[in-house]
Amino acid sequence: MGDGVSIKAGIVGGAGYTGGELLRLLVHHPNVEIAFVHSNSQAGKPVYDVHKDLLGDTELSFTDSLQPDVEVLFLCVGHGEAKKFIEAHDLPQHIKVIDLSQDFRWNESINEATVTEAGRTFVYGLPELQRNAIKEAENIANPGCFATAIQLALLPLAAENLLTDEVHVSGITGSTGAGQSLSATSHYSWRSSNISNYKALNHQHLNEIRRTLQGLQEEKLPEINFVPYRGPFTRGILCTSYLRSNQSLAEATNKYKAFYKEHPFVSISSTTPDLKQVVNTNKCLLYLEKQDKNLVITSMIDNLLKGASGQAVQNMNLLFNLPEKAGLNLKGSAF
Amino acid sequence: MGDGVSIKAGIVGGAGYTGGELLRLLVHHPNVEIAFVHSNSQAGKPVYDVHKDLLGDTELSFTDSLQPDVEVLFLCVGHGEAKKFIEAHDLPQHIKVIDLSQDFRWNESINEATVTEAGRTFVYGLPELQRNAIKEAENIANPGCFATAIQLALLPLAAENLLTDEVHVSGITGSTGAGQSLSATSHYSWRSSNISNYKALNHQHLNEIRRTLQGLQEEKLPEINFVPYRGPFTRGILCTSYLRSNQSLAEATNKYKAFYKEHPFVSISSTTPDLKQVVNTNKCLLYLEKQDKNLVITSMIDNLLKGASGQAVQNMNLLFNLPEKAGLNLKGSAF
Amino acid sequence: MGDGVSIKAGIVGGAGYTGGELLRLLVHHPNVEIAFVHSNSQAGKPVYDVHKDLLGDTELSFTDSLQPDVEVLFLCVGHGEAKKFIEAHDLPQHIKVIDLSQDFRWNESINEATVTEAGRTFVYGLPELQRNAIKEAENIANPGCFATAIQLALLPLAAENLLTDEVHVSGITGSTGAGQSLSATSHYSWRSSNISNYKALNHQHLNEIRRTLQGLQEEKLPEINFVPYRGPFTRGILCTSYLRSNQSLAEATNKYKAFYKEHPFVSISSTTPDLKQVVNTNKCLLYLEKQDKNLVITSMIDNLLKGASGQAVQNMNLLFNLPEKAGLNLKGSAF
Amino acid sequence: MGDGVSIKAGIVGGAGYTGGELLRLLVHHPNVEIAFVHSNSQAGKPVYDVHKDLLGDTELSFTDSLQPDVEVLFLCVGHGEAKKFIEAHDLPQHIKVIDLSQDFRWNESINEATVTEAGRTFVYGLPELQRNAIKEAENIANPGCFATAIQLALLPLAAENLLTDEVHVSGITGSTGAGQSLSATSHYSWRSSNISNYKALNHQHLNEIRRTLQGLQEEKLPEINFVPYRGPFTRGILCTSYLRSNQSLAEATNKYKAFYKEHPFVSISSTTPDLKQVVNTNKCLLYLEKQDKNLVITSMIDNLLKGASGQAVQNMNLLFNLPEKAGLNLKGSAF
């Protein structure tokens, strides 16, 4: 399974952060041939002129023309741009699209696929929830980064109708989550050694999270309150969620372990975790505590990998029946 | 008021972080003469051998003997050590003690002073709550850093019996809060670009906070849930608190402004704040938002200043009838 | 001396980094009244809308009109803009100008003042070299940040004709040296945990440095080689300079101590120094070593203070016969 | 070549930083089976208890006993400990030892192997210089991190007798270079946003560098002056070297490209580089400039990879005739 297979892949929006991270993965993926990397702004330049760490890894250059003979197309463009791209291009139906924007995540229920006007259906690509649907899918809407970290923290509870009381979440994200555009909050002199919250109780990923969890849980979902922070680091998201729970720590741990048993990227830690355990990997690490009446779940991912491009490759692996970890046995940076 | 006055001060435990920060303040305080800086471990060495930034500011050396002819004695020793120090030394009653440890913060009610066996009474030194009691006090128990940030966020609500629903707090602290001892979580290679939570829903400052708020509010206090984080920066604490509230944003803002009107170190920001607005100052900055049914209060301080040594000086100023801001008009580092 | 004196000061270009830092100093300076803060881009806004840490310190707002009744005018505008400003405005001659740009630093010799077409003469404002000239000056050209750090490392040698062999300097600067403009190298995701050199052996401050040193030393100056680095921190500059020298460490140390004896902001450290000893102060710290045939001089300053706005205030103090340290007894951030 | 081959490897000193980094590489290496990971201090514990990011990657535990049936043994112990280990254990001669300490780097000339009393010969393992000797070697002395970065910057010049004038090097290292021991200079509160030099012109790697270069160049080697800095980041080394040179930039570039043509981990960048281009990879990136009479060479590596464990794996690949990049196609962290 996987041996000798080679999938032809195209990348649209290859000059941004998620595009670069995808390239870092695909240049070493044993079953992928990168057919083209599209970028209007950088067309003609070697890929390593923009993603300078790729010097020595690839001689690819950016192009402003699309090649139709690919099997999978990754859309790494901004929110809103993916939908426009799909509408503007008459892509052959056999090309599977993996969209990293939020454009096709929104539907009424996780149990229905999003369908575009041109009849292209998108399945929400959270493999730990939807592995089978993804394997059969035509196209994938790749989840958001905070949404991934929070959903993976809560899925095992929703699956057993245990999200019965209000949930409180705080989470801190690195700067790459905001992309490469220059702004006051991405200025080094501002962000270094600084911390700030934003969109408190009002983050756009809450809809995505609620929709998923409600699709899994029969009982009506309680309030989910979320305070996001900008942290002084570049990669990673760490979230802490808590809610009233009657389960003991052992019971909860068993349920989490059972839920994620077949999922190679999720681990339940038995010692206090920290963000850098997952940085530069496609892993999600979970840690459970019971404090008095509350169950506390800490979850963490690398926002550019499990929260974006790594998850996109995981989805590609499933779509093409490759081993789920192909190209994703990454050396963590650890420090 | 203040002109020409000179208070003789002694410092015990001057080689640690809070001792150093106190020295940085007192060497430039217009109304203080530092009589001695006590340290068993560093006795004989110039103060600038340990607190190297003080080279050029003072020629003081550490001593291992105490001088009795001081008017105020700052205890900058570890938790538990302050109580031992007081018990082991027969300090003349005229010496006012300002203790930065937690040893004398604990009593049943904020409305009663803690009294030691030797008859020394300690008043909880949160000036924005207790200014008048502090002015009349014999000795001061200086509040904890997280406790200061969270109390200043909630005091105006407690004062009007508005802490009626469960409160949810998350907060991130810099590394200096853990002092200068070497440990795995203070190792640069670990902490840099990292984030982790600890003592989730179980932080020791919760007792201090609850006791204060309950002393102010007639209604029984609701649960206060607190998730603390270790952040990759050295100075500062930023907390986000939220609770259900019937007040409009305008109503809440007015109450906060009124409550802190006479308190020079607390400001209500009308724009989104960030931690570095208060770093290297004695300020507390508050920011209010209303999100649907919730009131969200962001509060931030420098943990070594308003959360420790700065507040200790503020308390000294009140004890000796100096201007409250004397020696505390600090240039923030801003970056 | 200084008591009760109040100098009326204006600031042009108050919305930038050096303008903000100057405001942080002047709002607490005992002998200054800020008459106006000029900014075309921010006119009408409170100063604390831009320099948010000043909330609670001042109620000043930016203005786009200049007031003529000031005694001193600080120009905190970009390189090239200061000259244009002087040419465009017919400033009364009694207003002393302190220019923080490089526009009036360039003249043939440190021993001559720069004179504008309108007859305004500028003295190079490095107090440790030119204190007397500054006291008599009409206007001041404030030195560059790297230039300050390197000159203070080498002045005592030049003064004794000891710069006889090639000098090698490396130095690392924090991000605030590049100002607040958004750029690829000021992006947090890029600069965090990163290091890079730039303008190796070709930095523009070399001319300024050479001119000064040659003015002091009779012998022809040797080559000065300088490799600057961008460091992952916000404030400060640390430089290491070395050259062949016949002096012993003791001889060199004595010469440095003698040279800086009357200069309150320069200290010679006898223990290995680090940058944070001077951050958020107006100090320059020097450290000498002898390695085999080489004399090694480490020098460090805060680029926004001794390297810009702090030195500007020091120059103002000298111009107006105030104590040299007035308003500059700053609490270092230390961490 | 390489397919299906599986080398049995043992690790001694597996609980430290280089041991952990080696594990991160070997758990994913296609041609390695880790037979044991030795650690006296952590025996019995799962490897992921110490190197927490390895949770999910391996179920190996530390052991305090050695297994003789390995083909290669990595020594990741401290300087001095490797020699003691070799003396204390009667290792079968067929086990090839790769030592990451400095213990067997020291010999008179790069052209002779170091021989222990027990007759074990060590070849200096810098593959870009010694690939053929390494392929035939019995044991490897793995180079130092700064030594690797500086040698790779200067080898092409030494190879052509062009190191004719004094060389000046400055370099900045991340904190992991100092290992995991707790010390004042590894304390987060100290090192964050700080910079300091150490061992100026006196670093222990200078001997290693000089010995290598002199072995390659016929002409007597000139002085090599080196100022090392501790930087506020965890991974990586960036060095700038310069010397007088008669070559044009084009000539020098051609020589460097020719020298490294067959070496897959070294690239010559044509655009200004920065450290993060190599972090979390086994690459060395070089950048050349000509400034007036000087040739300036910037070189950078990840100190834990090309500067330690990555180079050790590269050496193992050569020793066992595996593809040189096997297990070393690493995804850089880039941010």
UniProtKB/TrEMBL annotation, chains A, B, C, D:
Per its UniProt record, what InterPro entries does this chain match?
Answer: AGPR, AGPR_AS, AGPR_dimerisation_dom, AGPR_type-1, NAD(P)-bd_dom_sf, Semialdehyde_DH_NAD-bd
According to its UniProt record, in which pathway does this protein act? Amino-acid biosynthesis; L-arginine biosynthesis; N(2)-acetyl-L-ornithine from L-glutamate: step 3/4
Q: Which Gene3D superfamilies match?
A: Dihydrodipicolinate Reductase, domain 2 (3.30.360.10), NAD(P)-binding Rossmann-like Domain (3.40.50.720)
Instruction: Name the major location.
Output: cytoplasm
User: Could you tell me where this protein is found in the cell?
Assistant: Cytoplasm
Q: Does the keyword Cell membrane apply?
A: no
Q: Domain of life, per the record?
A: Bacteria
Function text? Catalyzes the NADPH-dependent reduction of N-acetyl-5-glutamyl phosphate to yield N-acetyl-L-glutamate 5-semialdehyde.
UniProt protein name? N-acetyl-gamma-glutamyl-phosphate reductase
